Amino acid sequence: MAEGERQAPPDSSEETPPATQSFIIPKKEIHTVPDMGKWKRSQAYADYIGFILTLNEGVKGKKLTFEYKVSEAIEKLVALLNTLDRWIDETPPMDQPSRFGNKAFRTWYARLDQEAENLVATVVPTHLAAAVPEVAVYLKESVGNSNQLWNISAVPTWSKVNQGLIRMYKAECLEKFPVIQHFKFGSLLPIRPVSLC
């Protein structure tokens, strides 16, 4: 197989037309503090905060132990997450002071960095295979950064997190240049101004 090409994931039982969207490898677009206005007015910001709010509402009152009927796409996502979880078990923490997180995360992250496109290819439908490199970047960025290790063992319970999530997440994360300067934008999370359609 030529470099840059990837084998398509197995076809699902549904025939789907080819994607008409072009996909791009995400890149940083917020380089200075004044660029933050571009971020706050972007389609990516609107889509991202909308996704967070939808997830927040969707899990309220749901028990973790309840059996839910899920789609094939969700089953594939759960399998991907189970793979990442298995890798955690295969990468035990190092015996070290943990003020800034455990350095075993770097080993785990290196594995994710190497395998992200293959993992994403198992989830993305065949007709959207061109999106795999872009989605792989978002998967890797979603788990943190191997150069910035944080100890999050003091995070309070979910109910405490949820109480402050909506109110503080925007102010303390999404509106802070030191955080957003690392965010990457592509065709799925575009920096263009939000469309009101």
From TrEMBL:
Main location group: cytoplasm
Record-listed E.C. numbers: 5.2.1.8
Entry keyword set: Cytoplasm, Isomerase, Rotamase
Cellular component GO terms held in the UniProt record: cytoplasm; nucleus; protein phosphatase type 2A complex
Any matching Pfam family: PTPA
Family: Belongs to the PTPA-type PPIase family.
Protein name from the UniProt record: Serine/threonine-protein phosphatase 2A activator
Organism listed in the record: Myotis myotis (Greater mouse-eared bat)
Native organism taxonomy: Eukaryota, Metazoa, Chordata, Craniata, Vertebrata
